[in-house]
């Protein structure tokens, strides 16, 4: 089927649901460690508490990709039913997670939240490849990245914005501040609303041969053998991209899980107070705990706000690529390599940054993030069978979640401990990992993956 060239607003509408998805991811990535610390987790325990996120991605994304490839509804299409189901579940989880009364409850909500976000996210990646001709693939993924950047910046600033309107950052021992609760409630609303916008403004192409499609659906479900077969026969370019993804996502998982303890401690000098160090029955010590806890919560707002800068710079980076790729050819390999190396430099600079300089570190990280969200998918989509786009995108997610699982199971703690005991060493590890990821782009040699000739838009 020859796919027609889409205009900017058509691509914007089909990608708009990613605004909500990124609200969910940004609130999760920016503030779950803060919630864990508020509920009593030590900084060494935090990476393991995060293991729910990559584990659910490893299980959910290939399953959802496989199912969406085999789904068709005249009313709802192929991918949109999964957008909607994931949005409803994610919105409920986002609303309730900051009300967690104990650490294990928060970890459980993270599991539910990440699984639900993945139900929505994976079909969005496949939708771009479904709807756009190959000449517009980079353009489509870059528009997604533009929307993701907007979502990251706004959501990361929500607790800070809410506190500026007078909502308290103070809270009792083991209680999440109201500023965080309201921010997560806003995120839940935006998530659902943005997904509904895409569902009702976007149509999908039906299967090219409906009779053959129905015959395939009627066959015995061979999900596991099909998944294993696709893994065993993945294109060489996909394997090489997997190496790049490994080091890229190890770095970003390290940031999401450890940036709050690392930066509140090293840059802002306001580490989370340890309950056992205070006699909470003593009025003076209780007041001292409350003072330190409020300072930690306020600096956590500022860390979240600084992290939002990487969403803003990734948005600017994506906007530049939107303008450029709409008319001209790009070298995806060199763009991705340079962006990742710049992001690595941003992480390394955190060791020397003041609170005022921290935003510049995240500007550089945003270039890497903008590229990670577009270039690998554009390169991959030029190297795989379009009939299997959903399941391939799901399998490709393995190269995202496996490094995160390794990081959570002790990878971060082990590697950063080689540099010392300070939490900031985790950011140094993230920087080194991202620079290695950038250099691994030299492995990519497939000409179709590296570049393309754009059509007029």
UniProtKB/TrEMBL annotation:
It comes from the Bacteria. The keyword Membrane applies. GO terms for molecular function: transmembrane transporter activity. The keyword Transport applies. Gene3D superfamilies: MFS general substrate transporter like domains. It is found in: Membrane. GO terms for cellular component: membrane. The chain crosses the membrane at residues 12-36, 48-68, 80-97, 103-121, 141-162, 182-200, 241-259, 302-322, 334-354, 360-379, 391-412, 424-444. InterPro entries: MFS, MFS_trans_sf. It is a multi-pass membrane protein. Keywords: Membrane, Transmembrane, Transmembrane helix, Transport. SUPFAM superfamilies: MFS general substrate transporter (SSF103473). Its main location: membrane. This is MFS transporter. It comes from Lacinutrix venerupis.
């Amino acid at each position: 089927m020859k796919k027609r060239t889409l205009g900017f607003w058509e691509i914007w509408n089909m990608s708009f649901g990613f605004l909500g998805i990124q609200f969910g991811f940004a609130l999760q990535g920016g503030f779950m460690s803060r919630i864990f610390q508020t509920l009593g987790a030590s900084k060494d325990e935090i990476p393991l508490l995060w293991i729910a996120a990559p584990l659910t991605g490893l299980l959910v994304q290939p399953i959802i990709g496989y199912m969406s490839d085999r789904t068709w509804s005249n009313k709802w299409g192929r991918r949109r039913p999964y957008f909607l189901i994931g949005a409803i579940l994610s919105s409920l989880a986002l609303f309730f997670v900051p009300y967690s009364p104990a650490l294990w409850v928060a970890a459980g909500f993270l599991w539910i939240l990440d699984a639900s976000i993945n139900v929505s996210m994976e079909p969005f990646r496949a939708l771009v490849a479904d709807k756009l001709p190959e000449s517009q693939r980079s353009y489509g993924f870059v528009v997604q990245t533009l929307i993701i950047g907007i979502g990251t910046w706004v959501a990361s600033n929500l607790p800070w914005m809410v506190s500026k309107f007078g909502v308290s950052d103070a809270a009792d021992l083991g209680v999440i501040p109201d500023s965080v609760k309201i921010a997560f409630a806003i995120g839940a609303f935006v998530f659902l609303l943005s997904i509904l916008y895409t569902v009702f403004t976007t149509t999908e192409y039906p299967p090219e041969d409906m009779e053959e499609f129905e015959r395939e659906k009627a066959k015995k479900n061979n999900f596991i053998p099909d998944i294993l077969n696709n893994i065993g026969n993945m294109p060489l370019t996909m394997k090489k991209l997997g190496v790049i993804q490994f080091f890229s996502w190890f770095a970003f998982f390290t940031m999401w899980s450890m940036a709050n303890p690392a930066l509140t401690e090293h840059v802002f000098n306001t580490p989370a107070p340890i309950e056992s160090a205070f006699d909470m029955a003593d009025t003076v010590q209780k007041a001292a705990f409350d003072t330190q806890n409020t300072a930690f919560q306020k600096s956590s707002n500022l860390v979240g706000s600084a992290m939002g800068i990487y969403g803003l710079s990734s948005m600017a980076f994506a906007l530049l690529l939107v303008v450029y790729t709409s008319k001209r050819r790009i070298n995806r390999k060199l763009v991705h390599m340079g962006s990742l190396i710049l992001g690595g430099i941003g992480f390394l600079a955190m060791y020397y940054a003041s609170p005022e300089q921290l935003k510049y570190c995240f500007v550089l990280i945003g270039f890497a993030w903008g590229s990670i969200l577009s270039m690998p998918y554009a390169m991959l989509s030029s190297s795989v069978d379009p009939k299997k786009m959903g399941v391939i995108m799901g399998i490709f997610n393995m190269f995202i979640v496996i490094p995160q699982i390794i990081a959570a199971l002790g990878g971060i703690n082990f590697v950063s401990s080689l540099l010392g005991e300070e939490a900031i060493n985790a950011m140094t590890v993230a920087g080194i990992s991202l620079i290695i990821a950038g250099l691994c782009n030299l492995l990519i040699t497939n000409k179709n993956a590296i570049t393309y000739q754009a059509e007029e838009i």
